[in-house]
Amino acid sequence: MTMEFSNQYVDPNVPAMYNSQAHDGGEYQLVQQLMADRSNHFGVSTLHFDTHEELLWSGSGEGHITSYHGQHMQKYTSFHIHATDAIRQMASLEGRVLALTKDQLRCSVKEGRTVFDFRGENVDDMQCMLVRSPTSLLLGGHHTRLINLDLTTGKAIKQVEVSEPGCAIMRQLKNVVYVGDSSGRVTLRDDRAWDTLNVIEAHSASLSDFDVHGNMLVTCGFGSRMGNMAVDRFLMTYDLRMMRALGPVQMMYDPIFVRFIPAYSSRLVVVSPMGQYQMMEAGSQPTGEIFQIDTMGQMCTAFEVASTYQSMCFADAGGFLHLYSSTPEATYNSYSTPTEFPQPPNHIDPIPITDEHASLASVPMFYPSTGKLFSDWPEHLGQRVYRIAKPIDSQLLQFVKMIPGSNSGYAPNIPGTRIRNLMPYKSDNKTDSSKNRSTVPDSPMGRGDDPFVVVPKRYRQVEIKYSKLGVEDFDFRHYNKTNFAGLETHIPNAYCNSMLQALYFVEPLRCYLLSHTCDKEFCLSCELGMLFHMLDLQKGQTCQASNFLRAFRTIPEASALGLVLGDAEEIQGKVNFPRLIQSWNRFILQQVHAETQDKEEEAGDDGELNNTRGSTSSDTLNINIGDTPKNESEDSIISKLFGMEVKNTFRCRCGVETLRETMSTIVSLTYYDSSGEGNLKPTTFSQVLQNSMSSEQTTQAWCNKCQKYQPHVQSKCLKAMPDIMAINCHLDNDSDLQFWQYQEQVVKESIVPEEKVEAFPSKPCRFGNGCTRKGCHFFHERDKDKSSADMDMNLLSTEDPARPSWLPFGVMVKTTEEGDIQMQDIMDEEEIPIVAEEGTVYYRLHGSVAHIKEAKSGGHLVSHVNVREPYHQRKERVTCTQWYLFNDFSITPIEKYGAVHFDLDWKVPCVIYFVKVNLSEKYDLTVQNPMDSKVLFVEENLVTPRRKRVTFTPLADDEVPKDGDLVGLDAEFVTLNQEEAELRSDGTRSTIKPSQMSVARISCIRGHGALEGEAFIDDYISTQEQVVDYLTQFSGIQPGDLDATLSSKHLTTLKSTYCKLRYLIDAGVKFVGHGLKKDFRVINIVVPKGQVVDTVDLFRLPRQRMISLKFLAWYFLKTNIQSVTHDSIEDAKTALKLYKRYMEIEAQGPDSIKETLKSMYEKGRALQWKIPEGEDSPTTAVETPPSST
């Protein structure tokens, strides 16, 4: 396929008279005449005016189509459809074009890319097509089939049998399809049932063209003369109301094309094969002038009229197009969509770099060279304005002393605040970076804030400033003063951090997933349990969900739903985060339900649950994603917590009803219509929630009684409420946003402050009513005249943490005797009772996820969570409840009203969770550690046994490590994404995004026993993601080692090895290694500090450089390691020996370690940290792998 864009208006081979001469055509004048692209050999076979854009399409006899824009016929696109066959007809849709050949229908975007091709054994000798709707197309040809095609799927829906000789031309008027065939007949068919309504015998031999308008049908064709077929010079006219023929109209020439142009009356344009055309009134004899198109003797092969009837185009066998228009500003459509054009490049003459005398003034400016600049604006048309002084700091106002008799005052500068009357410039901020170096970056959380931005600091997105060590030296604790763990953002698809935090604080779900394990390699439930385990262990530090997101990216359903984002999508900021996180919420509940459902309990109540009437097939009912048929759902933690039983009733308009019970986990809010004027009415949140749970909607479903798809009214009735209501807000359009905003405003205006009198300051102002200071804090007599409503609005400002909100803190659900459910808002947490009455259930607000809008990017997601007593007891050692804002790794305590207040200008609610009061009392919260010693003996080798080379000795039953045992550990990594960095103008290198590492090999060494120093784990980790760098020099990993079809190593899954490490950590072993902090970080596991012995820290003086393992082994053990590449078993053994050497030195005395390390540093500096030439290797610099210590 070739696609061409061109700025050339006409073909250069066409004589000049065709490019400029306007031939007289009566009302229509020749506007443009040019040769169509690639039509000089076979001519133009068909024409089509685009029905959505100002484009004219031409199809050639050799399968090529070209589009021309506007009255100048600027060539827009040109591409090939078929190698040899002619284009027989074209049609246009919004953004797409359809081209029909004899055995193929191609749908392409208007730039040329193919959307789909429709072929088949029934697609042969096709002649015509008819667009019935944006999703339906009718195809016909010289055979006995009419094919109804679905344009959304590109597949045939239905075939209709027609009589011989088939179909050649199709037109549609209202609910009737007019089908013309090659025998001269026009058949009228109903467009729904396809029944034949009437048959008109128009011409004796064949049909050339026909058109319908209003109540008239006009045809032209061929008749028999002396046994031969010849052009019939009579136009046949029929009255469609009476279904009878009117008098034939005789023409002065042979008619071949006929079209209605009903701009003012029922006029016709009749065209001959030799390029003659005449305009006439339908049903009357022609009296107008005959006009000749300059076809240079070629036959006219195609003719088309625009939908506005302001333009018409002729095409001839020589390949020329002749565009006639009634006005110079003619358009093809009444309301055309703007056509997208490529941006033309700006050509700037280069300046030779060697030309020392080149004038910089010769570089063209980016504004037009002609005309005046904006700086030339006349002075009398402008007004000088001066920079507005910044507001005076509130602390400064406390020390202001007023000058008697004036409005001026003075006060000393307060240390730590900006000096008044001095306006800093950007150049003043350039200071020596070496003087004031801090690990806290300049971020929106308190640095460089724009005073006019309405988003509070704690809600803004924090950007990690990377150093050469990645995020190792980033101070996460600056943004989190609590003991709860945040989640890092530098890994792909970290947008779901907010939802992970909301799920973590659901106590029954957390306890269940902590006890869950299975044999599936990529199980999101297992990964969630391991992530929750890390969040439990961390005390104020951050975690990363890299293993969970790694498994998440491998789920095919997640990719199909568009939940897996690419790097480009996140960088460009075009992601619709509210819709994305709501789809993620629905997906994760469905996925965890499928992974944790109880397979042992078989559904034995199918007959009772499948209570249906009628014979409607359940497969044809449109059930929302997230709804599972009740008889197919098995018990799981998700169905117990989030599942609500819904009885769906589908009622066809024929009266047949079908009942279907489903288990739904998500409530999608449906708001009342607010589009019309006056439709906005005060409504409670509970009313909207109740309406969303039991609303009626219309859906398409199959009805066995009607034997076709029919609209069904689907009504829902709740049978059982869930323990947790997971609500998707679905604020996707302006109407819904306006509804929520209106309800917030209603609540705001309805609340009156209790202490209205105390709102007035008690201390009088010294200037009285003559005070002109804006925002004066003292009392004035004129303040008494202010209306109470104005005072209310001032008190209920957006900065007030106690501002009321439409979203309640609780919901009361009451079941009536008739089985109906009634809901009511509870606006204060304190008002939610602990013990509920019979038939009444109370829900409290657990948390919400909100989208924070940002002008420079697509924004980000945060979550508000009401953290209950058990979490505070584990983390803070206190008994309380508190609302927190989780902004990735920034965690801030907030007032409870901040969790329910949504200023839709910058914070939009996405997901809301309500949980039943005393939810934890219904569930067993006992956590059983799923890791036992059996995981150490599980052999999950992905390599064929005959090719596997074993490099370790498995543990015996009596060798299982116990609390306090030493285990040497080392890991090797590969790179999945390269580091992204930039070189600044001052020569420094800045990291934009660190490299993404993945663990490739993990080795564990025995630290005691008869086999001390022998490896009992040496696992190579298989990965399904693309590796960009194996880092062979530093990891020893060769291409093919991680491929199950090529590897000879002990290749296994990350989950299998992770479980082994997790058991060792839970058993209390001590890990000995070199640079373990990074190893555990990439493995994505948390190890208590008391179980880590890192030789990097042991052999290091304070504020001195870290020493490589290679140098330490040479200095203390007199061995040379890592001579060619790194080996994790060798490195782990060396770390164990160094630790034991350290213990020997420490036993010599209290100062022996310090003196030994001083000697080592002196030796290292003398050798410039190079190992001298030894027996095994020449002098080499001590190498450090990328991004490691």
From TrEMBL:
One of its GO terms (cellular component) is nucleus. Positively regulated by the regulatory subunit PAN3. Residues 598-608 have a biased composition (Acidic residues). It comes from the Eukaryota. It catalyses: Exonucleolytic cleavage of poly(A) to 5'-AMP. The keyword Nucleus applies. Its cofactor is a divalent metal cation. Binds 2 metal cations per subunit in the catalytic exonuclease domain. InterPro entries: PAN2 (IPR030843), PAN2-PAN3_catalytic_subunit (IPR050785), PAN2_N (IPR048841), PAN2_UCH_dom (IPR028881), Papain-like_cys_pep_sf (IPR038765), Ribonucl_H (IPR013520), RNaseH-like_sf (IPR012337), RNaseH_sf (IPR036397). Keywords: Cytoplasm, Exonuclease, Hydrolase, Metal-binding, mRNA processing, Nuclease, Nucleus. GO terms for molecular function: metal ion binding; nucleic acid binding; poly(A)-specific ribonuclease activity. Its EC number is 3.1.13.4. The linker, or PAN3 interaction domain (PID), between the WD40 repeats and the pseudo-UCH domain mediates interaction with PAN3. Contains a pseudo-UCH domain. This ubiquitin C-terminal hydrolase (UCH)-like or ubiquitin specific protease (USP)-like domain is predicted to be catalytically inactive because it lacks the active site catalytic triad characteristic of thiol proteases, with residues at the equivalent structural positions that are incompatible with catalysis, and it cannot bind ubiquitin. It functions as a structural scaffold for intra- and intermolecular interactions in the complex. Belongs to the peptidase C19 family. PAN2 subfamily. This is PAN2-PAN3 deadenylation complex catalytic subunit PAN2. The lineage of its organism: Eukaryota, Metazoa, Spiralia, Lophotrochozoa, Annelida.
